[in-house]
Amino acid sequence: MNQGLPLFFHTQDPKRNHRQFRPGVRVDRLRRVRSVILGWRLVRLPGEAAVSKLRRTTFLLALSTLLVTLTAAPASAATVYSTGFENPPVSAAFQEYFTGQQFDGWTVTAGTVDTVTLWQDAEGRQSLDLNGSLDGSIARTLPAQLLTTYKVTFAVAGNTQGPPVLKSGKVQVNGQDVDSFTFSIAGKNPGNMGWVYRSFYFTNLLSTSSVLQFNGTTGTAYGAVIDDLKVESCLLVLCPASASTVNRIH
Ligand SMILES: [Ca+2]
């Protein structure tokens, strides 16, 4: 019925006629679109060199910023907490702390622990035996923000003064297991403790409070020993080697 109507509009509409019958303008529009996508005007038009240069510069700046962001190493991770268990200073061979006692911001939440001066330390002149007279636990609240990933690093060794050969312990955040470890004292002595560094990541998904707790699980009075503890914050994606290695705290 109205088969001729579209053609009528095309031929009568001045704007459509303008587009339809000036193919050079259409080519120019394609160039403009392509230049926006590529950030570079492939075919410069007279008088537009300055605009082209500005677009190219803006594009390259944005691209370089993106690449730097995507490939950045976690060198800027900020330390939010660190300790070498140096406080308070121990005047004797060791100081035992019992359940409910506090030292340097830590609370003994189970059993007993010792700060010790008897052996080579990973840092300073004291370290912490997670077993005082028996399995002990210490806990403290971290200055950690919600939905931020943290890297916890610490050094592990073992009390060489008594059995068993294989020491053990585990770490929790808000009661959730985030790391467990063992350490063999075979071939070790107070002058050669064989400190080993280990680390784990966690992100607190729901709570604004993050309570870090270390637990001795060796079962005797000669437990796993820790020292040189550091907690660093980092960007949610970039800090860990893999997102799958992050412990999600619920
Ligand atoms: Ca220390």
Secondary structure elements and their pairing?
Elements: H1 5-12, H2 14-20, H3 23-38, H4 49-71, E1 78-83, E2 94-98, E3 102-103, E4 106-110, E5 112-116, E6 127-129, E7 137-142, E8 149-158, E9 166-173, E10 176-184, E11 196-204, E12 210-216, E13 224-234, E14 246-249
| Rounded Rg | 32 Å
CATH architecture name of the largest domain: Sandwich
Total domain modules: 2
Cα-to-Cα separation, first versus last residue: 68 Å
| Largest β sheet strand count, sense and barrel closure | 8 strands, mixed
Give the number of helices. 4
Helix amount: 10-25%
Mean pLDDT score = 79
Q: Name the CATH class of the largest domain.
A: Mainly Beta
SSE run: HHHHEEEEEEEEEEEEEE
CATH superfamily of the largest domain: Galactose-binding domain-like
- The name CATH uses for the topology of the largest domain is Jelly Rolls
Hetero groups: calcium ion
Low-confidence stretches: 1-27, 33-45, 59-75
Quick one: overall form? globular
Structural class of the helix and strand makeup?
Answer: alpha+beta
Q: Classify the beta-strand content into a percent band.
A: 35-45%
Protein name: DUF642 domain-containing protein
Domain DUF642: 85-231
InterPro entries: DGR2-like_dom (IPR006946)
Pfam families: DUF642
